[in-house]
Known about the structure:
Distance between the termini: 49 Å
Strand order of the largest sheet: 2-1-3-14-6
Strand content: 5-15%
Oligomer: single chain
Largest sheet: 5 strands, mixed
Shape: globular
Number of helices: 22
Helix content: 40-55%
CATH class of the largest domain: Alpha Beta
Radius of gyration: 32 Å
CATH superfamily of the largest domain: Periplasmic binding protein-like II
Number of strands: 19
Amino acid sequence: MKGAQQRICKVLSSMIEYGIKHLGDGMKRKALQTAAACLGIAVIALTFTSAKKSKNELKEPVKNKDGLIELTMWYGGTVSEAGEPPRNWLAYDIIRKKLGIELKLSMLPSSEHDRDAKLNAAAAAKQLPDIFTVNREPWLIMVKNGMVAEVDDMYEMMPNRTKIMFDKNSINYTTVKGHSYGFASPGSIPRNEGVVIRKDWLDRLGLSVPVTTEDFMNVMRAFTYNDPDGNGKDDTYGYGAFIELYTHQEGLGRRFEPIMGAFGVAGTWSMQKEHPGLNVLRPEFFDALTYVKQMVNEKVIDPNWIAYKKDDFRAAWKQGKFGIMREQNAALAAESNYKPFDKNFPDGEWIVINPPKGPKGECSTGCFIQGYRITAVSKNAIKDGKKEAIARLFEWMSSDEGYYLLGWGVEGVNYVKDEHGVPVVDGIPDPKKGFSKATMQPLTQLRAYVFYNGPVELYSRYPTYITEFSHKKMSALDVLNQMDKLPYTPAVGSDAMPTPNADLKRFLEQGVLEFITGKRDFNRNEWNKWVSEFEKVGGKKWNKEGLDYAKKNNLLY
């Protein structure tokens, strides 16, 4: 027993002994019963309190001979062939002196298969490192087997990193049965496309920016039939598109997503718990196709949308063929991409607008996916009392010092900052030590753990410039920032869902296209017949496989 328990038991034992010696039989019996009851209650209460205390208190981490907490981290290298950071890496020294941590890094295999195998073997042997980057499927198995720690309270322990790196969607990505089991940091830019419209055409025709699907249809008609460019020719259309299909964007594909989104059916899959499954099976899909069919029938869409490839589509808008489209930020506004349009139409202007709002108020640029990178903490690390040290390390990584050091190297050696604070190699003393040089890559192997597609990173990719012909100030980054704020439909993980076989895929894509182009009669009855046939030839099975996968992988929201 612990000290407190021993002292109370000693007092109660004395009471019992006194009762035996000095009290009569009746009083003795009552005193003994009371003392025994008190003794039992005291022992139970103290035992419970002791257990509760030991559960809630963090174990003090063991420190090495230098007084440092050792943390092991298996990471995904940015340039795996370049090798590990050198032993004299400045970051190691800072992490030791400022954080009291001895960081031991080990690069994971670049092959996804080999990486999974290494981590699965470590999990089976109960020898996972303190911190490790892991793919979603093996991570889920580790969570189920109790190998990964809950990190819910760690977000508050690293407020700056949490603010920069994690949002509701990323936390949901690592949440299983109400608890977060890892940190999902951002990969590629997910919301870099949007609906854009020719503002100069709107101004010429005295029109306002459209809001609803009805507004969009009216503007598309005007752009098609009211000579918006003023050249006196019947050579313009309201909407431009081409068929651009992806696993998570089936049917008519990405360029029609703003239309589908107005009816709540953007993307191949609905990932919402209220109505999960293939969007093509939902009644609203028919409503969305009805709208697209109207665009085709009224000839307000460039008729070449069926034949266009991506390059054709982009050549067409640069030649002034249509006035509304969904486009990517750099494809629209990067200097080399915008130049042909600027030359042809120096008075022309594209602006980013919200996608159309449908009859039920739904509005979406389309579905977006996020290539999250999961960094997990082993349960053993928490048991060893390392939680606070791990949070301290991650918070430092997202400080200015950690961000620039891990992302670009040493200022004045590997980079200098330009007038915008962007790291550049122009002006460093020894050009051979520039952060972009192959020999310097080991110094920035952890940059994926600090980069978040932030302004500094993006500014270097999308510089501001003055257009050659119209002399406008342009920036693809400004366009990106506008597009990122547009409404999108979350579909994280939908790109990893089960895919249809070739015959079923062809049945879906060909069927939708035939309805829109008039090769099939398009009405509710004929559509329902086609959906029934789609389910029979494999659609029902595909839908079930997708639902099972989404539930198993916690993808529904």
